[in-house]
Every structure is written in structure tokens, then in C-alpha cells.
Amino acid sequence: MKAVHAFRSVIGVLALALGVYLIIVNSLFIGAVALLFGGFMSVTGFTTPSGRQISGKINNLVYASLRERGIERIRKGTFHVSEPDFLSSIEKIKDMFGKQAEMPELGYDSLFIHCQSETEADRNLSYIRSAGLSASVIQNKRDWQIKIDFSH
């Protein structure tokens, strides 16, 4: 996607330069069209993705990574959860993964999600429980964790 933005930016700047040149040599109409086209291409090329787009990509990346690690550990026998239970559970709460400061951790038969404050932990716990999952809050020395228990 970066290549598309870079290409649009270059074309936009070139079209702007052409537009200015054409206006200088008294070709006003064609110069104005080139300026409009160059302005459009520059704006769409230089703009960055919105926070929502970036958050969605981060969320998808964290979810995909967690899913992959979980499946790998289940198949190795180091994560004692059935694969369908694990996949359906993380699917229910996948919207919250991108908002975490740290990557969720896989335990023996549970998933630990880190939170920076008690308020954040309570909010996330409420969200997790509303998705029908068994979870509890644990306070550590450095942060709050939510333990999602798969052993039920």
C-alpha cells in the first residue's frame, strides 16, 4: 500500500509542477487542469491512514499472531485447550486485542491479557464476560491482568 501512496505523491508533485509551468507560459486552462489533478493526487498520496485504519490493522495482526501461537502450542501439547474452544473464544473478543499495551500471553490452560489500570481491567473484564467467557482479574506488581480460563 505504501507504493501506491508514493506513486500518487510523485505523480501529484509532477502534475503540480507541470501546471505551474503551463500557467507561466500562458496556457491557463490546461495549467489549471494540471494543478487540480496534481492537487488531488498529492493530497491522496501524502495523506496517512486514519487512526481507525491503523488500529484495525494492529488488531488484526495481534489476533492473527495470537491465533497462530495458540494453535501451535495446542498441537505441541503445551497449551491444554481444545482448538475449537480456543478459536471460538478469541474470535468473540478479538476487537480488544489491538488496544492492549502488551501482547496477550498463553498460559497452561488460559490466556492472560495485560491492563495498565484497574479501571481498564474492569472495563475489559466486563467486555470479556459479556462475550460469555470465564475470566477474572489478577493484580501483579507491575500491572493488572485478566485471566481467561479455558478449563471450564
Amino- and carboxy-terminal Cα gap: 43 Å
The value of Rg in angstroms is 25 Å
Output the number of helix runs.
Answer: 5
Structural class: alpha+beta
Instruction: Please estimate the helix content.
Output: 55-70%
Order of helices and strands: HHHHEEHEE
The largest pleated sheet is described as: 4 strands, antiparallel
> Beta-strand level of the residues, as a percent range?
5-15%
Number of strand segments: 4
**Strand order within the widest sheet?**
1-2-4-3
Shape: elongated
Overall mean pLDDT score? 84
Poorly predicted parts: none
Description of the structure:
The chain is α+β, with helices and mostly antiparallel strands and 152 residues long. 60% of the residues lie in helices and 12% in strands. It has five helices and four strands; from the N terminus they run H-H-H-H-E-E-H-E-E. It has helices at residues 2-24, 28-46, 51-76, 83-92, 118-130; strands spanning 105-106, 110-115, 135-139, 144-149. The chain has a four-stranded antiparallel β-sheet with strand order 1-2-4-3, with helices on one face. Strand 3 and strand 4 (144-149) form a beta hairpin. The model has no long low-confidence stretch (mean pLDDT 84).
